[in-house]
């Protein structure tokens, strides 16, 4: 595994690939115009979006390696590590959008950047584009390129950030389309998610480790937490956390019928450190306390 290079600015990234810096906070890289390259690993302090038009070998993300297909968009957030594994130098077809967090500081996009959860998706959850979608994405990148080649003036930042926000909103739309077109795959994820929760509560894991986390479930499904959450929200209208809480309530209702157990014992079995937290959550979801529910039934 090659050494990890730390890239904290747009200029550092441009220097790494042999690209001229037109703007200190944003860059569009055309891989056909840069020097061929092979193995590398980078930890980025900037946002990066890669549009690949050709196979580029194996892409690494964190400690994992994936076969990265053509016609896909990959999103990298600051702090993440990515790279390419190839034995020989090769020139690729595609583009990269690199922008520093300071570019969007104080803008509406800067305040809402966390809403674009796909920046925390894994490489195997990359966005696969249709030909028409690719044309729209390329047009957005071309508009940003035009502004970078234009002399910087008082309108430059506003226009660049506007085009960037438009670009990201299209990406959000295309991801939602992808969730719909993968409906059969999504249903399989849902059924496996339910089984993970069933197995968790039927074992001693809750007593040992507390309530299951979204991250725990996502790792069991080989997905990122954000991707699982977005998939469930699109498919069911509920977040992953809401699903976990509803499953806990469902199991709690069954346990409450066992008169030999106190409410505190049930709370501990479900993974609550403090029984009053269980009582509060149960009452919020069901409309009555566990004791009232037991009496009524």
Automatic annotation (TrEMBL):
PANTHER family: ARAC-FAMILY TRANSCRIPTIONAL REGULATOR, TRANSCRIPTIONAL REGULATORY PROTEIN
UniProt signal peptide: none
Name of one Pfam family that matches: HTH_18
Name used for this protein in its record: Transcriptional regulator, AraC family
Keywords: DNA-binding, Transcription, Transcription regulation
Alphabetized GO MF terms: DNA-binding transcription factor activity; sequence-specific DNA binding
InterPro entries: Homeodomain-like_sf, HTH-like, HTH_AraC, Tscrpt_reg_AraC-type_HTH
Gene3D superfamilies: Homeodomain-like
Record carries keyword Protein biosynthesis: no
Family annotation (SMART domains): HTH_ARAC
Domain named HTH araC/xylS-type: residues: 191-296
């Amino acid at each position: 595994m090659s050494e990890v290079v730390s890239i904290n600015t747009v200029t550092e990234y441009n220097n790494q690939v042999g690209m001229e810096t037109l703007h200190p906070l944003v860059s569009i890289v055309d891989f056909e115009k840069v020097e061929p390259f092979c193995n590398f690993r980078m930890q980025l302090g900037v946002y990066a979006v890669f549009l690949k038009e050709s196979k580029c070998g194996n892409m690494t993300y964190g400690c994992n390696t994936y076969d990265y297909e053509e016609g896909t968009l990959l999103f990298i957030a600051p702090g993440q590590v990515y790279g390419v594994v190839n034995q020989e130098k090769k020139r690729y077809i595609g583009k990269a959008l690199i922008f520093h967090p300071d570019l969007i500081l104080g803008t509406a996009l800067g305040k809402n950047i966390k809403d674009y959860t796909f920046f925390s998706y894994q490489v195997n959850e990359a966005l696969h584009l249709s030909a028409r979608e690719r044309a729209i994405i390329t047009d957005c990148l071309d508009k940003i390129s035009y502004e970078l080649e234009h002399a910087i003036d008082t309108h430059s930042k506003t226009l660049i950030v506007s085009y960037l926000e438009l670009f990201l909103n299209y990406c959000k739309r295309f991801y939602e389309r992808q969730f719909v077109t993968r409906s059969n795959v999504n249903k399989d994820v849902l059924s496996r998610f339910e089984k993970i929760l069933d197995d968790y509560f039927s074992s001693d894991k809750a007593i040992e480790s507390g309530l299951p986390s979204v991250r725990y479930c996502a790792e069991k499904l080989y997905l990122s937490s954000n991707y699982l959450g977005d998939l469930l929200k699109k498919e069911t209208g509920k977040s992953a956390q809401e699903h976990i809480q509803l499953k806990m309530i469902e199991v709690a209702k069954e346990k409450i019928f066992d008169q030999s157990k106190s409410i505190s014992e049930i709370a501990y079995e479900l993974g609550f450190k403090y029984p009053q937290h269980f009582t509060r959550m149960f009452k919020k979801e069901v409309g009555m306390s566990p004791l009232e529910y037991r009496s009524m039934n």
